[in-house]
């Protein structure tokens, strides 16, 4: 059994010797310890009391008390100042909504400083001015809003239901490979939200939902068709499965609808496979006797058998080489290659050719059913079937949603009192 030594303060010993120690404390002290204290002189208890001749006079004591009180205020003020900075540094740059989240701490800090004439010193170290604070402190902050605005006074913001819908839908596993714009238009189509794309992006930022993408500035006007299945893009891309086999994927994409029309997996690199892929597409959509343009790069797979077949009498399709016959590149189908690989193929392990073919079929099906921002919310399959992309297609729906939102937010049963 372990034992420990208990020590007592000298002042407690002196109080016991003088009979001034409280009875409850006295009972907690062992009897042997109290017996030992009784046999000792009070002067033997060590106590760091100064000599009488070294004691300060009353004026000096009063001055020390004031300095100690001021020091306590400074320490407390420093504590609140550090706590405010700790929260604001994370939220940098400082805005009115950020300051309102630490409003209570700022008020406590200013309360201590105003009483002790330290307000001028404090304003030197706060990351905002006195005028800014006066302006911000009168604003109302509501914890039921992502922006901190009262719903009754600012009913134009998205409702609680719409906020939760954005949060839950963007987290769905089936949308992992979708861009935010695709998710937005899908929610519009399902009538789960009714807002503009910029508002959707804004609430995604407030909810910390981001999907980074690279934007490249264009130096020329993109090559665009005015009808589906009139301009096709063809290219080839490589993909290696886990078993080490290199596969060539022959891709054809429609210019107008942006639909991926073909994605053929092969183990050989040849113009004959490119010809077969194109022929299958033209036969499937009954385009053998229609006029059209095929845009390719200057690779060897786009020559030989493919060129011979396109030059057959009666075939009205014309081949154009990107950046030679036209100034534009073949980026339309190159973008499709990246979409297939980086959003669908690289995201999961693919063991062999059989699994690759299955993954490609699922990827093409998912992509062609995904709402596209370039098509203003229509899917490639819909545009391929004859739908015309319309920028104003969802305008009426969004307008009605705004009116309904005003009523929902004005009638919101808020149980919190907004800060003033």
TrEMBL record:
- Domain Integrase catalytic, which positions? 218-388
- The highest taxon in the source lineage is Bacteria
Q: Which residues cross the membrane?
A: none
Q: Which InterPro entries match?
A: Integrase_cat-core (IPR001584), RNaseH-like_sf (IPR012337), RNaseH_sf (IPR036397)
Q: What is this protein called?
A: Transposase family protein
Organism, per UniProt?
Answer: Chitinophaga hostae
